[in-house]
Amino acid sequence: MSLDFTQLSHDLAALCRTTAEFIREEATTFNRAKIEHKGVHDLVSYVDQETERRLVAGLRQLLPEAGFITEEGTTGPDAHTEEFIWIIDPLDGTTNFVHGLPVYCISVALVQHRELVVGVVHEVGRDESFRAVRGGGAFCNDQPIHVTDVAELNNSLIATGFPYKDFGKMDDFLKILGSFFTRSHGVRRLGSAAADLAYVAAGRCEGFFEFNLNSYDVAAGILLVREAGGHVTQFLTDGDPLFGRELVASNGLIHAEMQAAIGEFWQ
């Protein structure tokens, strides 16, 4: 089946923009008593669930034959056998949202035969729409974006995500974090992997790393970084970062240094 992925990316961005308006409205009156726990420190709210419902309904109109992989569990007939699969995080950064910290995103990507072809990250607080198409570049609010040309880790700003439910590798992670503290301009923890990846693509930081990630956390962001000229891999290999549960993203120039810094302590 032949699709106009560029037009689809615009349609997807419009859907995410409209859905983001719902999230912003709910943020003004959100009641923290309504949150639920999927696990220890793993929060979900009716806003996540309603956002996902709206996205799925809109995506079914855009591409009826596609399956779904979503954070809150809505799927198509068999998401693993469909030619096209939407990978959705309706509210990446739920903990930020619950606490009123304005860094959270809608993240939606389309996969064709396990290859990322379209991705949109809508950063709700800043109302920024990041969009990418395989082979077609990356954009923020329809303006082209590109990773930075910083060539050394020592001159880079790095983003990461802290463990919040699986602490088995905490000691290794803290050693890695300490290594980046001493080898970079600093380390930031925004609370949304989708935002982290979008910001690498837009040149706001040079690199990002995190483990215990899910495909819906990173799918759109991976495509953004790659189409903006960057590089995305697993921690120590060039393995698939989409389903690999760990990820290093960079402007490409500092990638080897980042992997080396992680490799000193990661087993």
Q: Whole-number average pLDDT?
A: 92
Strand order of the largest sheet: 3-4-5-6-7-8-9
Task: Give the SSE string.
Answer: HEEHEEHEEEEEEHEHEHEEH
Would you report the number of β strands? 14
Structural class estimated from helices and strands: alpha+beta
Calculate Rg over CA atoms: 18 Å
Q: Which of globular, elongated, flat, extended, rod-shaped describes the shape?
A: globular
Query: Considering DSSP H and I runs of 4 or more, what fraction of the residues is helical?
Result: 25-40%
Give the biggest sheet: 7 strands, mixed
N→C terminal distance:
42 Å
Low-confidence stretches: none
Task: Give an account of the 3D structure.
Its cofactor is Mg(2+). The chain has 267 residues and is α+β, with helices and mostly antiparallel strands. The chain has 7 helices and 14 strands. Strands 3-4-5-6-7-8-9 form a 7-stranded mixed sheet, with helices on both faces. Helix 1 (5-27) packs antiparallel against helix 2 (46-62). It is globular, with a radius of gyration of 18 Å.
